[in-house]
Predict the 3D structure of the following.
Amino acid sequence: VDSLAELGRLLADVELSCSCCLQHFTEPVRLASCSHSFCRPCIAAYCRGRQRATCPLCREGFELKDLRPNRELAALVSLVCFVFQLLK
Ligand SMILES: [Zn+2]
Ligand SMILES: [Zn+2]
């Protein structure tokens, strides 16, 4: 059994894409109010020029200053990218 390929298959199912840009998260941040995660640049661009910051997915309001880096997600994205590199 090729365990690396197996790992790659498992990781391919993990949701690691930002719903704004549909790419792997860059600098993922989590919204404190609804726990949805987005790339920091995506959520910043989405909220620019709006009176009230809201989640692009569920419209829950949030404070830009309350954005928390989602380190677990960032680590997972790096791991997945690393494994996919190895599989190439
Ligand atoms: Zn994004
Ligand atoms: Zn949300």
In short: Residues 71-87 form the longest helix (17 residues). The pocket of zinc ion (ligand 1) is lined by residues 18, 20-21, 23, 38-39, 42 (CB under 6 Å). The chain is about 40% helix and 10% strand.
